[in-house]
# Entry
Amino acid sequence: MNPDDPAAQRPSHGRFATTRWSVVLSSVDADGGTQKMHKALAELCKIYWRPVFAFIRRLGHSPPDAQDLTQDFFVTVLKGQLLQRANPARGRFRSLVLKALQDFLRDAEAKRSARKRGGEVQFVSWDDWMSEAPSHFSISQQESDRWPAERIFDVRWAATVVERALSGLGEECERRGRRRVFDVLSPCLAAERDNVSYSKFSKRLGIPEASVKRLVHQLRVRYRALLRDEVGRTVEKPDEIDDELRYLCAALTAAE
# Structure
């Protein structure tokens, strides 16, 4: 997962015309609480519920309380209250979410009412978010107790982005009848090339080693493109993507 790899920087399908974050910012600039903005913002928030929940848990809140606070925070975001205080010049949605979350938690108890979780109008269903597949990236209790909340937020964000890219790649392979290829070869995506045993995968898939190498290369290229897509949705401008990818790689590397 090298963001400096030329294949990883190759644009596809004109996706930079509008990122989800730029859609949100343009709607705010135009004083528009449009349905398009709400949809874009809701999709952005779905990337961040795990990092937000993990951040709140690290501060000592019980799982039920952390769930309620997470829900309340995103209700606030989706109702536009976060954006009213947002500085569009910040650019990265990740930075804005973390700062807004810290501000929210400072006065959360004063603002929280007796309403039950999910009691207000929402643009997305909380149950839909919570029913997503659990994260495959685990943080031990010992590490989570030692790490600052901000680091846990970054690691959970990075892991979620990677998992969304992998999930998208798996779905693409399934539509093309290559699900088994993805299931067998997906461990190669994060591995160094020298550590990939092409002969082993050749035997498992029943195809020549040369075909395995070609498939691994194709998967790597597409995975990097999808990873860029995921990161690109959370920044305002394309030239910010490489910095975010480097930040993502650093967060995951530091967690290893």
Observations:
- The first helix runs from residue 20 to 29.
